[in-house]
Amino acid sequence: MKTLMLGNEAVARGLYEAGCCFVSSYPGTPSTEITECVAKYEEVYAEWAPNEKVALEAALGASLAGKRSFCAMKHVGLNVATGLFAFINGWNEYLFASTFMKSYENWTLPMGIASFQGQYTTNWGTLMAGSVL
Question: Could you tell me if 41 and 16 are in contact, meaning their C-beta atoms sit under 8 angstroms apart?
Answer without folding.
Answer: yes
